[in-house]
Amino acid sequence: MKENCLRHGKCNIIGITGGVGAGKSTLLEYIKGSYNALVIYSDNVANDIKKKGLPAYDSIVALLGKEILGCDYEIDKKKMAQAIFGNEELLDEVNKILHPAVNDYIINIIESERARFKYDFVFVEAALLIENGYRDIVDEMWYVYADEEIRRDRLKRSRGYSDDRIREIFLSQLSDDEFRKSCDFVIDNSGEEGAAFEQIDNKLGEWKNNGEFGTA
User: Fold this and answer.
1) Averaged pLDDT, 143-152
2) Count of the separate structural domains present in the chain
3) Does residue 212 fall inside a structural domain?
């Protein structure tokens, strides 16, 4: 565990991770509305870097062909999905382009925000933060936990996922123990949203009101 990493006088970088269906996005929207915080979503970055003139555009077009482009010469999501559908090798090649490009792009944002210190906090959200080595980049790593059955129910209701699809996703992600071992702070989001918000306020509210953090 890291000690006293979040403090005044700097832009604090926090990685926030957890299994699918844990409710990370809801908690981050609360944080963004309650604190002077920038939130970086890795999925949004992955979409942005595929745009013309940005890091992954040329490599993906070279790999998949100009047939994936729309009338505006931007990569068309549906055409790209059709091009890689059912082709695991091609999907792997796309990921080899996207994952490093996403990491580089996020690290550049972090370095820029640290230098200009506009925000008290920059939160970086991604399912693979731990696997991609962000422990060495962020000041703290937070884990959003929710009971597996609750996550399963959320995914069925909000995304219409089948039991087989959910089981496959769960097996591909880190276990609860692995998340906990790698993170400095755990938010239990198994119940009402207000209870999770209170945990965040207890963690960050001390800093907000008194100007100091305790031990992480």
Assistant:
1) 94
2) 2
3) no
Domain span holding position 188: 8-36+119-203
- The answer to whether 10 and 140 are in contact (CB under 8 A) is no
Asked if 132 and 199 sit in the same domain, the reply is: yes
Predicted confidence at residue 216, as pLDDT, reads 36
Residue the block writes with tokens 């908690």: 27
Confidence category of residue 214, pLDDT binned at 50, 70, 90: very low
Q: pTM value?
A: 0.85
Q: What CA–CA distance (Å, rounded) separates 86 from 95? A: 15
In a domain, 208, yes or no: no
Which range has the worst mean pLDDT, 50-59, 78-87, 163-172, 206-215?
206-215
The residue out of 116, 139, 169 marking a domain boundary is: 116
Span 30-39, pLDDT tens digits: 999 999 999 9
Q: What is the pLDDT of residue 208?
A: 64
Q: Rounded distance, CA 200 to CA 154, Å?
A: 21
CATH number at residue 112: 3.40.50.300
Burial of 145 (0-12, 13-18, 19+ CB in 10 A): buried
